[in-house]
């Protein structure tokens, strides 16, 4: 077939493999989704399997939708070659019911069907994340209150709190309990796991402590390996020759330096200690007890060498001092960690901590039980329940549900298998077949497993990888060719991870099986090197940047501008991404990017309830509930609901009688409203009438109905249009409606219930981000976290490295790992202080390895997003002349990698990058190259810029911009251009030029915007019949989201429109309104043929043009704005299509529809043509398409 991909040998194996479980290790950019879709199609075509006989598990709902669309597209592709294939045709109808979903969606469907098997109330609802947090906190409250009634448990709780040093810190206590809840609830049989841990701690404490000591001893050996290397480097510089002090005698008197007797004595003592420890190390006898006994009775002072000032006067002597400093610091760390307390005493304290560990496990058991009961009482389930209840259902009644699905599913396909958790693995294992062969097909890349914080278990992938590689229990197929990135990006990525990723730190060896291989054919001569940008200083000293992030943002903005200019129009803003480890500093980036006029987007993950428009609605609700609330009432009066200014509010307060000075502001409004002579009397009366009206409405309607009424009453949606960031504001208001609707469905509520709910969220620091309004095709520079970037690709990636590696590891007092269970610090009751127990020390070491492994995988994801160029950005105090790369190449190398114990010493992501760049430069120098041209280090000077918009640092930006808007709409104009607006729509032009087909209106400059008619949001229309204009809006929305395919029949039309319901674009009610026959006529039209033949199709294209450029009679600045439904791009011209849904009520209108459309829309379409011709500099033809099937070409200039 034409356009058939040229499969690689490994891809073809992945498509055709069968008769066992199959694991596809698919590297970044290897085309795994394309392979998965083709495998599905071959199952349908060659094995006569139907799409509903496959279970296809995706990681996200968006991925499930995308998978369905790609399968549908593939079916149509094969139907084009074989249009009468009935089996293929049937797949289109079966696709709607196919099991293509996340595991959570599958579990929910299972629960909805078989809820009776687990005695679940069928009226259950899914609690949202905020309600889950509140219910969980309530459960902890109940458990702790119950403990307070038992004297023995109170003593245990007191000891537990003292041991953790959190006696007066309730927030930390709740966090510790919640962490434990999520750790254990992620396990299939969590109750048995907890009981087993309690059993071991109670009855096998010696074996438990011994196991923890083995972990500590492994780390101790790594620490000493570093110590041996550092002392050797110090000695080599001191003796000025290559030697191995650990194993050979050294005559320090042969040093070229003049050494004192004291220096020689201390040095020889260090040599004696190093050689003794090295001998134990070689014989595997170096352990915590031995080291503790050696160092416990001596101090660091006994090993401290004093280096004279005279020695440091030379560069060689200074190098000796620096090398000794590194050695001394490492020795200090070892002594503090392993000789701070007597070994036997430490063991005893560690046993004492076990009681607290048992108490904690029992506490978690009680919270799990209480939380489950509270959810059932409120008829709630959460996402963890999805998996547990589904597993219970599958196992119930001797597994008859599992038998049903085993018969149905010929194959289970799991995408992103590296992020599967233990619960999901258990469900899949219950559903899979075992006879005549197993039938699970798994696709993923363990190097991209970055969701351990969501209980993802990459070890599941690793275990299968290792077994299947030996042909045990399944097949392993590796897809290692990368079709995304240029060769320089791939070369550096391979070099980097070969040096830093292995089974110890990374959890998998980065070997030939894991490497990325260039798959794009010939490498481009324009390949751009990987660049490490170390920002060191400003170009002008008088410009000060308060934060490192500001330096980064300025550099990135300037670099993007330079690259776009140099590309001669080939690059767009969407080609650039800035990747950070965490989602912070968003406001700084927004501010700086705006100074350069760079279109920019970053998703806020917090601050929703602080948004001004959301605060305003919450204030209105508070006033409806109780008008005596002064602060929310005054806030409403000051807002764009009533436009009272400060002077007017003060006047109300002052003009009340002295006897009324203690009245609430609401009562003072009542007082003013009765004063017939007061200038604010009518406005105050209007406020009071409005409040009473809203209060009366609230008594008879639900919360979501009230919110719709408030939005309509104050025109809140419309009033956002004139404000900065209006689209985001409107989305936030719609989001608030959705939250009230969801809350209302789960509760029989009054206003105060919702107010308290939101207030408790704020009190508990439970926040959410603003509603996302970014379109996939938006031409903006994106700032995102590594997690958000997964699955995406960009021409240029700026990866910012200034973040700490260990910030999420070392803060936890209670550490939970599968290897150590729950661990607690030791507690000295006599002196009331805590310190590391043996088990908590072991747990921290395990967590450190796991955390660093995850961080390396995050780095892998970030680096593999880049197509053309990968650009690292970091900041250091050193200057270019101070960077001695060769000195950075000072780490121990084991099996061509930096030793794991060395990597675990790195503090920041940039340390890893520095080490690898150091090796690259070191290797280049060995063959007499200045450096490898594939990798550059640069020291950019950040240029000073004149901000384009002066910021008022004393006020909130949004408030400044809102005030400016209020000022603009309140300003009286005396110019003779009073009735000539600066911006006008094409519809306005039709009205002002005498086109009677459009209702004229007076240009309104008052502060009230009652005359502005805007599209009604979806949620405001739920209980109202659509007008013809609103039906037109609905059809525009449908057409905007429907694909342009070669052939679309009637069955496909309904399927395509139904998919818009599934993804939330339209509602079920709107689906029922859409006329499928009208859409089918469009697909059968000649105009649609022109769409298929166009070079490019652009939908919903907004434009703004200066009217004076297209109309010489306009002698003043005036912008014309409009929206083109469809723009077709051809070689020598453009064409625009405008959709129309005018009502055709009579046969006469139907017969004359073409002329009616020309009469009505010639003015509009001519304006469109003139505007676009002035912008595009080519001929533009215009067409009107009416959904009755009438097509009209509009001529005229």
UniProtKB/TrEMBL annotation:
List residues of the UvrD-like helicase C-terminal domain: 498-791
Gene3D superfamilies named among the record's database cross-references: 3.90.320.10, P-loop containing nucleotide triphosphate hydrolases, PCRA, domain 4
The highest taxon in the source lineage is Bacteria
- Give the reaction(s) catalysed: Couples ATP hydrolysis with the unwinding of duplex DNA by translocating in the 3'-5' direction; ATP + H2O = ADP + phosphate + H(+)
Native source organism of the sequence: Abyssicoccus albus
Q: Does the keyword Protein biosynthesis apply?
A: no
UniProt record, GO biological process = double-strand break repair; recombinational repair
Q: Which InterPro entries match?
A: AddA, DNA_helicase_UvrD-like_C, DNA_helicase_UvrD/REP, P-loop_NTPase, PDDEXK-like_dom_sf, PDDEXK_AddAB-type, Restrct_endonuc-II-like, UvrD-like_ATP-bd
Q: Which SUPFAM superfamilies match?
A: P-loop containing nucleoside triphosphate hydrolases, Restriction endonuclease-like
Which GO cellular component term is one of those annotated? DNA helicase complex
The family database entries (Pfam families) matched by this protein are listed as: PDDEXK_1 (PF12705), UvrD-helicase (PF00580), UvrD_C (PF13361)
Q: Where is the UvrD-like helicase ATP-binding domain?
A: 5-486
Give the EC number. Answer: 5.6.2.4
Q: Which residues bind ATP?
A: 26-33
- GO molecular-function terms, A-Z: 3'-5' DNA helicase activity; ATP binding; ATP hydrolysis activity; DNA binding; exonuclease activity
Q: What is this protein called?
A: DNA 3'-5' helicase
Which keywords belong to this entry? ATP-binding, DNA damage, DNA repair, DNA-binding, Exonuclease, Helicase, Hydrolase, Isomerase, Nuclease, Nucleotide-binding
Keyword Translocase included in the entry's annotation: no
């Amino acid at each position: 077939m034409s356009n058939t991909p040229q499969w690689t040998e490994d891809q073809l194996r992945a498509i055709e493999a069968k008769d066992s479980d199959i694991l596809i290790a698919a590297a970044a950019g290897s085309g795994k989704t394309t392979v998965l879709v083709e495998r599905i199609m071959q199952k349908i075509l060659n094995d006569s399997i139907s799409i509903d006989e496959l279970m296809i598990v995706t990681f996200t709902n968006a991925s499930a939708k995308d998978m369905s669309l790609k399968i549908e597209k593939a079916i149509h592709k094969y139907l084009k070659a074989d249009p009468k294939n009935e089996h293929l045709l049937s797949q289109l109808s079966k696709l709607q019911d196919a099991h293509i979903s996340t595991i959570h969606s599958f579990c929910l469907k299972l629960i909805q069907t078989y809820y009776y098997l687990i005695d679940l109330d069928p009226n259950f609802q899914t609690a949202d994340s905020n309600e889950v947090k509140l219910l969980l906190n309530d459960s902890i409250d109940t458990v702790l209150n119950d403990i307070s009634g038992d004297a023995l448990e109170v003593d245990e709780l007191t000891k537990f709190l003292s041991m953790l040093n959190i006696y007066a810190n309730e927030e930390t206590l709740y966090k510790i309990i919640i962490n434990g809840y999520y750790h254990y609830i992620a396990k299939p049989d969590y109750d048995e796991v907890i009981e087993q841990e309690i059993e071991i701690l109670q009855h096998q404490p010696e074996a438990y402590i011994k196991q923890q000591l083995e972990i500590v001893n492994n780390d101790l050996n790594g620490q000493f390996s570093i110590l041996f290397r550092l002392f050797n480097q110090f000695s080599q510089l001191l003796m000025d020759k290559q030697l191995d002090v650990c194993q050979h005698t050294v005559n320090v008197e042969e040093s070229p330096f003049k050494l004192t007797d004291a220096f020689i004595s201390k040095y020889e003592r260090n040599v004696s200690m190093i050689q003794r420890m090295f001998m134990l190390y070689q014989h595997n006898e170096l352990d915590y007890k031995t080291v503790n006994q050696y160092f416990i009775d001596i101090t660091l002072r006994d090993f401290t060498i004093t280096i004279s000032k005279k020695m440091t006067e030379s560069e060689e002597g200074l190098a000796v001092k620096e090398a000794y400093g590194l050695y001394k610091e490492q020795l200090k760390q070892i002594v503090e960690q392993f000789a701070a307390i007597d070994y036997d005493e430490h063991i005893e304290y560690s046993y004492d901590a076990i009681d607290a560990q048992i108490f904690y496990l029992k506490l978690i058991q009680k919270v799990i039980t209480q939380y489950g009961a509270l959810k059932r009482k409120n008829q709630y389930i959460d996402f963890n329940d999805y998996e547990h209840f589904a597993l219970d259902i599958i196992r119930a009644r001797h597994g008859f549900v599992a038998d049903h699905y085993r018969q149905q599913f010929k194959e289970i396909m799991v995408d992103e298998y590296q992020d599967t958790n233990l619960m999901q693995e258990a469900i899949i294992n219950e559903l899979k077949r075992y006879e005549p062969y197993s039938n699970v097909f798994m696709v993923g890349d363990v190097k991209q497993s970055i969701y351990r914080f969501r209980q993802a278990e990459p070890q599941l992938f690793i275990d299968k990888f290792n077994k299947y590689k030996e042909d045990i229990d399944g097949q392993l197929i590796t897809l290692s060719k990368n079709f995304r990135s240029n060769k320089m990006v791939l070369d550096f990525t391979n070099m980097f991870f070969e040096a830093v990723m292995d089974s110890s730190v990374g959890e998998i060896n980065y070997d030939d099986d894991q490497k990325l291989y260039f798959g794009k054919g010939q490498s481009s001569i324009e390949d751009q090197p990987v660049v490490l940008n170390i920002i060191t200083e400003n170009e002008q000293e008088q410009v000060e940047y308060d934060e490192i992030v500001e330096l980064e943002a300025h550099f990135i903005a300037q670099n993007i501008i330079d690259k776009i200019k140099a590309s001669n129009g080939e690059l767009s803003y969407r080609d650039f991404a800035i990747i950070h480890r965490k989602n912070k500093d968003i406001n700084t980036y927004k501010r700086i990017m705006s100074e350069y006029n760079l279109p920019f987007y970053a998703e806020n993950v917090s601050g929703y309830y602080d948004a001004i428009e959301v605060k305003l609605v919450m204030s209105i609700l508070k006033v409806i509930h109780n008008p005596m609330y002064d602060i929310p009432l005054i806030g409403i009066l000051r807002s764009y609901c009533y436009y009272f200014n400060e002077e007017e509010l003060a006047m109300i307060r002052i003009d009340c009688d002295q006897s009324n000075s203690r009245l609430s502001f609401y009562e003072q409004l009542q007082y003013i409203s009765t004063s017939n002579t007061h200038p604010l009397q009518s406005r105050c009366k209007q406020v009071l009438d409005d409040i009473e009206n809203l209060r009366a409405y609230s008594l008879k309607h639900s919360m979501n109905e009230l919110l719709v009424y408030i939005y309509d009453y104050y025109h809140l949606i419309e009033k956002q249009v004139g404000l900065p960031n209006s689209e985001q504001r409107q989305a936030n208001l719609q989001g608030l409606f959705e939250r009230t609707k969801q809350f209302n469905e789960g509760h029989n509520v009054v206003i105060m219930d919702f107010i308290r709910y939101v207030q408790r969220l704020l009190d508990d620091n439970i926040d959410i981000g603003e509603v996302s309004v970014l379109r996939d095709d938006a031409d903006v520079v994106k700032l995102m976290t590594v997690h958000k970037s997964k699955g995406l690709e960009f021409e240029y990636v700026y990866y910012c490295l200034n973040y700490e590696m260990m910030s999420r590891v070392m803060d936890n007092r209670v550490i939970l790992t599968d290897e150590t269970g729950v661990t607690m610090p030791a507690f000295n009751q006599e002196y009331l202080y805590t310190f590391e127990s043996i088990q908590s020390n072991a747990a921290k070491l395990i967590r450190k390895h796991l955390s660093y492994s995850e961080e390396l995988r995050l780095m892998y994801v970030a680096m593999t997003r880049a197509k053309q160029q990968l650009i690292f950005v970091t900041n250091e105090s050193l200057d270019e002349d101070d960077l001695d790369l060769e000195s950075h190449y000072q780490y121990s190398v084991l099996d061509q990698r930096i030793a794991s114990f060395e990597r675990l010493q790195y503090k920041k992501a940039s340390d890893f990058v520095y080490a690898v760049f150091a090796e690259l430069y070191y290797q280049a120098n060995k063959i007499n190259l200045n450096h490898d041209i594939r990798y550059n280090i640069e020291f950019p000077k950040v240029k000073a810029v004149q901000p384009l918009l002066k910021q008022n640092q004393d006020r909130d930006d949004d408030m400044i911009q809102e005030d400016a808007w209020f000022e603009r709409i309140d300003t009286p104009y005396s110019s003779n251009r009073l009735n000539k607006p600066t911006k006008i729509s094409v519809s306005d032009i039709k009205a002002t030029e005498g086109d009677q087909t459009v209702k004229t209106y007076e240009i309104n400059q008052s502060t009230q915007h009652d005359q502005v008619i805007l599209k009604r949001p979806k949620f405001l229309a739920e209980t109202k019949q659509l007008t013809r204009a609103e039906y037109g809006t609905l059809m525009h929305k449908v057409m905007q989201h429907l694909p342009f395919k070669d052939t679309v029949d009637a069955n496909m039309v309904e399927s395509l429109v139904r998919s818009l319901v599934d993804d939330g674009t339209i509602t079920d009610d709107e689906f029922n309104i859409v006329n499928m026959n009208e859409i089918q006529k469009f697909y059968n039209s000649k105009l649609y043929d022109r769409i298929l033949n166009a070079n490019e199709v652009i939908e919903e294209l907004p434009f703004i043009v200066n009217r004076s450029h297209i109309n010489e009679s306009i002698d003043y600045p005036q912008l014309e704005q409009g929206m083109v439904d469809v723009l077709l791009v051809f070689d020598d011209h453009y064409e625009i299509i405008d959709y129309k849904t005018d009502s055709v009520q009579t046969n006469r209108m139907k017969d004359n529809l073409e002329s009616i459309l020309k009469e009505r829309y010639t003015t509009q379409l001519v304006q469109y043509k003139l505007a676009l011709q002035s912008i595009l500099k080519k001929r533009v033809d215009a067409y009107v398409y009416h959904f009755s099937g009438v097509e009209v070409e509009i001529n005229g200039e």
